[in-house]
Structure formats: C-alpha cells, structure tokens
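User: Can you model how uridine-diphosphate-N-acetylglucosamine sits in this protein?
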Amino acid sequence: MDRIAIVGGARLEGEIPISGAKNSAIKLMAASLLSDQPLRLTNMPRLADTRFLGKLLRRLGAAVIEMDGPEGSETVLHTPEITSALAPYDLVRQMRASFNVLGPLIARTGHAKVSLPGGCAIGARPVDLHLKALEALGAHIDLNEGYVYAQAPRGLEGATIAFPFVSVGATEHTMLAAVLADGETVLENAAREPEIVDLAECLNAMGAKVEGAGSPTIRIKGVAKLHGAVHAVVPDRIETGAFACAVAMAGGDVTLTQSRPEHVRALLDAMAAAGVELDETVDTIRVRRGAGRLKAADITTEPYPGLATDLQSPFMALMTMAQGVSVIRETIFENRFMHVPELARLGADISIAGNEARVTGVEALTGAQVMATDLRASVSLVIAGLAAKGETVVNRVYHLDRGFERLEQKLGACGANVRRISGDQEEAA
Ligand code: UD1
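Assistant: Here's the modeled complex, given as structure tokens:
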C-alpha cells in the first residue's frame, strides 16, 4: 500500500488547476446507461473511483474509452445494449456510488439486480430514500440476500416525491430514473448541490426535460428516449476547498484555477473570517496567508449552499493551529470525526462532544505516522502535515487516490515537500 510523506514548513507559491468533480463524474457515467448512443464527458478526473465505475459499466455492456483530448481528459461511454442488468456485490461494495446504476438499469431495461452497498466507515448511510423513490415511480422492489431485485416491466411512471430530508444521492438517483418515466415527476425537498445541476445539464443535453435543478423543487417531464451528448464535468468544489485550506495552512500565495468560487462560498466565508486573504474571479481563487497565525472560526456542515461535510476535516486541520477555540459541528453524517485521533497524533488539541468538535489552536504541530481512515479524513492529514515540524507519513493513501487526482504532484509543483512511497518499492526493498 502506498504512503505519502510530507516534510512540513515549505510555503506554497504558484497555481493549482482544479480537476472535474469526482462526485459528479460518477453520476454522469451512470447516466450514460440511459441511452444507446455515446456520451462524451470532458474535464474528467482520473481517479480510482472513476476507473472502478468504468469496470462495472463494462460488465453491464458499456464500452468505456478514456483519452486525453485538447481540453484535458475525456471519457466516452457507449452502451448500445445492456448485456447484463446485474451489479454484483464485489463491485458495489468497493464503491458505494455504484449503486446509482440501479435507476438507469430499471429505466432502460425494466429490470435490475443490484447489490446493496452495505455499511461504510462514515456511519450507516442507508439507501431507503433511493428505494422509496424508485417504488414511487412504479418499480417493484424486493430485497433478498443483500440484493435489490427491481422490476418495472411496463416502464416507470412519473410521480410526486417529497423527500423527508435532503439527500444528494437519492435526488440524483431519482433523476436518473425519472427522465425516462412516463409523465411528470416532481421532486420536493431536493438536494441543491452543484453536482445536481451538473447532472441535470448533462441529462438535458441528452434530450431529457429537467427543470429547477439547484432549487428545492425539480420537475422532470419523462421522454421516451435519450440520445448522445458532450458534457464538461463541473469543477470539483471539494478539491477546491481542500487545496484552499492546504495553502492557508502552509502559508504562501497560490491561485486555484479552473474552479468555481461560488460553489465554495460557505468555506471561503469561514476562511476569510479566520484571516485568510482571498481574491476571486469567476473561475479562479487566489489564496494568501502571511506569517501571522489565523484566528479561530466556527463552522456547521449543512446541505448546499451550506458548508459541505466533505470540507469539514480540511477546515478542522486548518483550525488546529489557529489562535483561539473553533467549534466545528457536523450535521450530515455520524462518525465523521475519525480524523480527530490522527490529528491529535500530530499534536492537535481537539475534544469531541456528540456532533461537536472543539479545536483549541496550538502554536505548532509535529510530524508523525498517521493513518488515513477515509477519503475526506485523509486529506486533512496531508494539510496538517504541510505545517507540522518534521516528517508526517500518511498511511493507507488509497483513500486519497479515490478522490484526489495527482495530489502530491499538484502540491509539489507549488513547492510542498511531498513524496509518494510506493508499496511495491518497499516490498521489493
Ligand atoms: C454524497 C457525496 C458525499 C457527500 C454527501 C453529502 C457522492 C458520491 N457522495 O453522498 O461525498 O459527503 O453527498 O454532501 O456524491 N440518507 C439516508 N437514506 C438514504 C440516503 C441518505 O438516511 O436513502 C442519509 C445519509 O445517511 C446521510 C444523509 O442522508 O446522513 C445525507 O446523505 P446523502 O446526501 O444521501 O449523501 P450521499 O449521496 O451518500
């Protein structure tokens, strides 16, 4: 298993290009199953998760071709026919979002057998809302031996679905099924994340009729067929926010390019309150921090446009060296403080009570061996390592590789002292 070693203390200078959003790319890839014509996705991030979903889509009958075009990485997905409507446990277990093939499979073929994703490290994460919404669209759902068996032999039918609370995954999944349903579907209390808007734009480019994405009410007029399209993946707001925190932690002057500042507004507000200097254009963010310490600032994670739960751990890492006490409230997931004991190994002073972490800023962190527990937690350890004295070694970086494209190269190009220690090399040594 690879590890990442960081020697803290280097200031960062330069530019970091932001990649396409992982969380959007994987739903867009699933959308390709809805048409028998090719979907060409540009600005695609090259990540373990997208490679992984490509593998599952090939099993279902898709041709998945990755290439480097004039505007960066592209993926063309083409499924003339669904040759299997089975998504097996060994593939869904490895990446939860694979479950999102269920809706497109039922919509296109009238039946599907998809493994339940099972638990995951950040809490129970059930899929009850996904299944209820598909049932509301007329799918018959049976759960047996860990699989969802879904049938809609006469196709899906539009319905009004009011979600009891906001779920990004359930909103997207319902959109992916409803675009081919007969009649109109109305989603109430829908998630408003930029990835929802991105999915709606891609589906509309494929001939769907989706209105209201980005607001709490989404209206979808079902169409009989979707066609091919070209769509550019929205910039990754989580990568943007994580790098903004990394620069603020290390100190320096870095411009994040190809990004969408308005998608990280809540984080930028919190960073500005902490004393980070920020200048933005429509697609760049210049992040500067001089020699002085930042001030503690409080955050609460919320559905978009509130501060993203995926940016909670990067911001917490930043607060470990701020002056004062920062209160960080997590309202989306349980068990999302797994990075706290690891940050403590570097000398951070953090106490947890329920869903609230109190971070008392310290003057210095010291490098140590730490363990990445999940994707979002692992990046916080890299961020802390950038400012810690001496060497920090982050173990189990496969979590990072799921969601961050070329993380060590992007930071290294700005002067960070970061290197990957490949597991193969170590075993050979
Ligand atoms: C997505 C993102 C993830 C991000 C999260 C919240 C992807 C691949 N992942 O996850 O990075 O942290 O949004 O912004 O896009 N819930 C249920 N029943 C359901 C569905 C969800 O109880 O059927 C609960 C979850 O346990 C959680 C809350 O709803 O407490 C919100 O989860 P949701 O918005 O669905 O997150 P994901 O789509 O899984």
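A couple of observations from the model: The mean pLDDT is 94. Residues 13 and 414 are 5 Å apart (CA to CA).
User: Helpful, thanks.
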